[in-house]
Every structure is written in structure tokens, then in C-alpha cells.
Amino acid sequence: MHDVHHQAPTLFNWQQADDSKRDTPAIEVIGVPSDVGNSVSAGTRFGPDAIRRASLGFPSPLSKLTGRDKGDVKSVHAKDWMHVLKDIEQSVSDSARRRALPLILGGDHSISYAGVAAFADQGPLNIVWIDAHTDFCTWHEGPYHDHKQVLRRISGLPHVNKIVQIGHRGMTYSDERQFSDQMTVITANKASELTPEAILEALPHDEPVYISVDIDAVDPMSAPGTGHPVPGGMSVKQVCAYTRAVLLHREAVAIDLMEVNPLLDHADMTARAAATILADMLKAYESGMSGRLK
What is the span of the domain harbouring residue 205? Predict the structure, then answer.
């Protein structure tokens, strides 16, 4: 059994996981209460529980698929971060091996490296990265796994093919959009002009997709509780529309949602925004999965 502990409340009122049970649900939630990869603003370690609490008022978005909450990866702040990333990778890999969809709750965005790495034997894999920032910073000093350069590290994984980034508007030291020919960048302004289906043109039809959502993609008027808010962001409705298009028309192997910081939130607005996005994604995932099985 991998290294998790179980705690209430659970996401969308699902039952806590017992890995000794043989029945495998279609979706497995994995919490990673970490802010190790964000050296600027602590508090994302409380993100998974905040999202779970916010989700308790939601009816289950699923009508046919089952889900369970595996709890949180343990001892995140008591181990070397490289070892923690391996624990996360193993937990995600275990879920995928059971043919469940891993739904990872963060936590800071450096966690996503472990989520993507878990699919090294299932490439090529395409990434949909919804974020206000490129997360493509060069590494100069400090922790090698950091939320500021996590997408740069992900792009270097041999099984990663195309990267579609949506919602960019953050200030950077240089035009980081040009750092990789794998990447298509759709700014927040451009996202408001395009139909959600337009991004499908950049995603190969017959290859799986990993979807990562940084809550700072949402405008801080709706999601203030995050470490690096940037004005002019997308609405919750826009984020849902883009992720829905991908989930309806591409095979998703995992979903994560990162950077909810309850210590910076106001009246749980950000946690509710995150729960709303996740509920919509799960509903779209079920619909897309049903459509592909016909």
C-alpha cells in the first residue's frame, strides 16, 4: 500500500479509499498538502482540505462512474522533496495501473511534475496547462523542483509531446513562450476570443492528455486565494469551457488542480471556484468517456 492517510471530509462526498478492496472506481482523488515548491508564499499545503470542504455542498457530478478519495500523501514536509515527488508519482501510477483517473489536489504546482512523470511508459503524452504564468523559468539556484520552472522540467520528459498553455498573462524576465517548440500559448485575452474547441487543433487526436489547472488562471476577483494572482484572468466559466472541450474530445489520463491557498483566500471564494471547476471537469470526463465507448 502506498503512503497515504485518510481523513474527512471527502471530495464530492465520496467514500475514503481502502486499497485492500478489490473493486476499483473510475476516479481516485489524491491530495498533496505541500507548499515546498513555492518559496514565496506558504499556505498551499492547506489547499486539498479547503477544496474538499468547499465541495461538500456540491451534488455528485457523476451519474454512472464511481469515485473514491485516497486521502493525502503522507509526510510531505518531513521528507526530502525528491523522495516526496517519487511517492506522489507512485501513488498516481498505482491509480493509473488500476485504470482509474487520478485527480490530484494541490498543493503547489511543482507537484505536477510527479503526476506527469507517472505516465512515462504511456507516451506520447500531451499537456493542457491552464495557468497565468508559463512556469518555464530557467533554474539558477535553490530547489531544483520549483513551481516557477515545473513546466520546463515537464517539457524535458521524453514521453511529453505537445503542450498547450491557456490563460498566460504573467510577467516574465523574457519571452518564455519561445523557449520550447512543443508549446502553444493562448493568452487570457486570446482565450476570450477563441472557441474552446479551437485548442483541439493543437492536440493530436489519438494521443492522451494530462490536464493541469493552476487556480491563478482565474481572475483574482473570483479566486483571490493564490500566491501569485494576476489581474485580467479567465472566468471560472471560461476555464470550465476549455477543459470541457478537451475532456469531451480527447482521452484524459489524469487531472490536477493546484495553488489554492486558503490563508490568502476571502470567504472561501477560491476553494469554491476550484471545486466548481473540478465538478464540471468530472461531469465532462464522464460524458467524454461514455461517448468514446459507444
Answer: 4-293
Asked if 98 and 142 touch (Cβ cutoff 8 Å), the reply is no
C-alpha to C-alpha distance for 200 and 132, rounded to whole angstroms: 20
Whole-structure pTM value: 0.89
Segment 140-195, tens digit of pLDDT: 555 556 656 788 889 989 999 999 999 998 655 555 556 677 889 898 999 999 99
Residue 123, C-alpha cell as written in the block: 507516451
Among the listed residues 78, 77, 60, the one whose alpha carbon sits nearest the alpha carbon of residue 69: 60
Quick one: which H or E segment has residue 291? helix 269-293
Burial group, residue 8, by CB count within 10 angstroms (0-12, 13-18, 19+): exposed
How far apart are the C-alpha atoms of 153 and 172, rounded to whole Å? 17
| Domains: count for the chain | 1
Virtual torsion, Cα 105, 128, 226, 119, nearest 10 deg: 30
Report the alpha-carbon distance of residue 247 to residue 251 in Å, rounded: 7
The string of DSSP letters for 228-290 reads S--SS-B-HHHHHHHHHHHHHHS-EEEEEEE---GGG-STTHHHHHHHHHHHHHHHHHHHHHH
How far is CA 277 from each of CA 30, 108, 114, 139, 214, rounded to the nearest angstrom? 17, 17, 22, 31, 11
| Domain at 77, CATH number | 3.40.800.10
